[in-house]
Specification:
The structure is a single chain. With 155 residues, the protein is α+β, with helices and mostly antiparallel strands. The chain contains 3 helices and 7 strands. Helix 2 links the parallel strand 2 and strand 3. The chain is globular and about 50 Å long.
């Protein structure tokens, strides 16, 4: 195999691929994207899944290994308040368990990505779960928007 992706990118892709799969298996007509730009270029409903932040500390005093946590943000752009609430509850239920962490790689000059399972991931803290209120002239995507932010670790 050619070029391996670094851990942070693998954390984001593992979470993205997991949530994309479970949403597509349980909901029809929902577009899953990785960036705000894509979310605003797509017809709603849209779920945007992205890694926001990493906090890294030493595993123990004197160690050279790190213990990192990663903040994932899920933005829901729904067609109604009911759909917004249903999608947010569904996603919260899905991140309550564990999902597969994969190492990702691609051959030089190729666009196909290969995933190799290498452990588990788990949500350790939900920091935000709320409706996003835009008071003045919200775009159609923002009328029924919701944000979920949570921290994950690889085990």
């Amino acid at each position: 195999m050619g070029s391996w992706f670094r851990r942070t990118r693998c954390i984001e892709l593992s979470t993205f691929e997991y949530l994309k799969r479970v949403i597509e298996n349980n909901w029809s007509g929902v577009t899953i994207v990785k960036s705000f730009t894509q979310a605003y270029d797509s017809a709603i409903p849209v779920v945007c899944i992205r890694l926001d932040e990493t906090i890294t500390g030493k595993l123990e005093i004197g160690a050279t290994t790190y213990n990192s946590s990663y903040a994932i943000i899920v933005d829901i752009f729904a067609t109604s308040d009911a759909q917004r609430l249903d999608l947010s509850d569904f996603i919260l239920n899905q991140i309550a368990g564990t999902w597969t962490y994969s190492n990702y790689a691609h051959n030089s000059g190729r666009t196909d990505i290969v995933a190799t399972p290498d452990g588990k991931m788990q949500m350790v803290l939900i920091t935000e779960d709320r409706k996003v209120e835009i008071v003045e002239n919200p775009e159609s995507q923002d009328r029924f928007r919701h944000i979920i932010s949570f921290w994950v670790k690889k085990f």
